[in-house]
Amino acid sequence: MSSSRFPSIFLLLTFAFLFQSALGVDPLFHFCSNSAGNFSAYDPYEANLNKLVGYLSIQAPSTGFGTGSIGENPNKAYGLTLCRGDVSSSDCKTCIVEAGSEIRKRCPSDKGAIIWYDNCLLKYSNTDFFGKIDYENRFYMWNLNVVSEPESFNKKTKEMLSELAEEASESPKLYATEETELYGNTTLYGLTQCTRDISSSDCKKCLDSIIGELPSCCDGKEGGRVVGGSCNFRYEIYPFVKA
Prior knowledge:
The chain is α+β, with helices and mostly antiparallel strands. The protein has two domains: 29-130, Gnk2 domain, C-X8-C-X2-C motif (Killer Toxin P4, Chain A); 139-236, Gnk2 domain, C-X8-C-X2-C motif (Killer Toxin P4, Chain A, 2-Layer Sandwich). The chain is 30% helix and 30% strand. The protein has five helices and eleven strands, in the order ββαββαβββαββααββ. The chain has helices at 44-59, 89-106, 150-170, 200-211, 214-218, and strands spanning 11-12, 29-38, 65-70, 77-83, 110-116, 120-125, 138-142, 175-181, 186-194, 223-228, 231-239. The chain has a six-stranded mixed β-sheet with strand order 1-7-10-11-9-8. It has a five-stranded antiparallel β-sheet with strand order 2-5-6-4-3. Helix 1 (44-59) packs antiparallel against helix 2 and helix 3 runs antiparallel to helix 4.
């Protein structure tokens, strides 16, 4: 599924919510941006974009994040990639390489595009977007199962994610996770993360914005995500296992 432009409204996806390995799976979602313009085969922008994706696949895996730009205007390409905070360097690199290959197939002539996998995201454009919160690219995922006590569960989930938003914004990696025991021998897991081109305060602002989408996205659901171009959260419940 794709969009002809970066959308100003949030697209909703309904399917079983799964935590996947990024190896050998399809992307979670992608957008192609016609608004950024198009390029043709052998265009100087295409050459710069190819170099940029290769550069990011080398630069980013050691830290899990990278930005770069290659070329001169009007053919300059800007790119960013982020791997989930707990992903190994080797899996990070694998995901970035796959993302770079797949997005070129899905958006072959678009100067701007973004693609998400479970382990990473990759975004590029012909305009400098670094340091700016991406409010346009956003999608939802949720588990089809509903909890038995949705009101108290929603409150607990929002409280956890709000705490994690604060923790992530104060972390050097702009990343935080937590597990807590719930009623009925279940565990609630939460994760928040931001791209590291934005400031700590903008990370908090971005996460607060998407956490505000909880009622629209995941009301009473056993798991859910709101995933954007600058930040994302995820939560799920699973049986509690005593050590």
